[in-house]
Amino acid sequence: MPRKTATARRAEVLDETLTQIRALGMAAVRVADVAEASGVSPALIIYHFGTKENLLSEALVHACAQDLSTVDSIVGGPGSPPARLLAALDWYSPTGPARGWTIWIDAWSVALRDRALARVLADLQRRWIDAIAAVIDEGVAADLFPSVDSAAAASRLTSFLDGLAVRSVVHKARLPRRELHASLIRQLTWELSVSAMVFTEA
């Protein structure tokens, strides 16, 4: 059997770290638990990541990179700007098991007292906002949306979904998918000052 590359092993460790975060919560994850589940020594993890805090931060970046790749393929894919904007935000919405949202909400809590993690989260959030803002700008350029501060609009739209995610994951008050989709369209029409038909007919 071929030996795993350092890159492959690193990805496995990060994936296992995310599994441990989901199971135990970010504050309770131990390097020893990740090492045992990954089949490596704790010393090897410390050698590659330095500290537990770096391991957790890189695990978040690893998870977000996968999600950002998906949203980039949506906003850069076929279809009109309104259709791609709605599809990207629909994908971002807290639906189904919401496993990714569990990690994000946990990270927000820990980041209240961890400035380094707070900076990582802020950078990841900025990348989300940039992706959404880019497709809003396309809509403005195509005269489908009025001129708008796209970064501010994207920030408010993602914050709306962040709030719904907290209710969904923490309070178990999950909206049915159809109702959440309708709420998102209402928020878009208000935010961008356009008719709902722009999105329902996209």
From TrEMBL:
It comes from the Bacteria. Residues 30-49 bind DNA. Residues 7-67 form the HTH tetR-type domain. Keywords: DNA-binding, Repressor, Transcription, Transcription regulation. The keyword Ribosomal protein does not apply. It holds the Pfam family TetR_N. This is TetR/AcrR family transcriptional regulator. It comes from Kutzneria chonburiensis. The lineage of its organism: Bacteria, Bacillati, Actinomycetota, Actinomycetes, Pseudonocardiales.
